[in-house]
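Handover notes (outgoing to incoming on-call)

Open items:
1. DUF3923 family protein: sequence verified, structure written out, both below. Nothing else pending on this one.
2. Nothing else urgent.
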Amino acid sequence: MKTQKIIIYFVIAIVPVFVLLTVLGDVGEGAEGGGIQRSIEWVTTYVLPWIFLYWFIKLVRKIK
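DUF3923 family protein structure tokens:
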């Protein structure tokens, strides 16, 4: 149970780090804005479905 919490916190921590790296990378290259928007699009496209799937599976197991 403790390792499961550690994994969950680790995954939750990776998302903001990725957003920050993307935004700071764009600022460092001199790109004009849009970094935050692309980061949010990436998170909603790739990360949120996996989080939803995790909680859905957890709910199904609890119902059984």
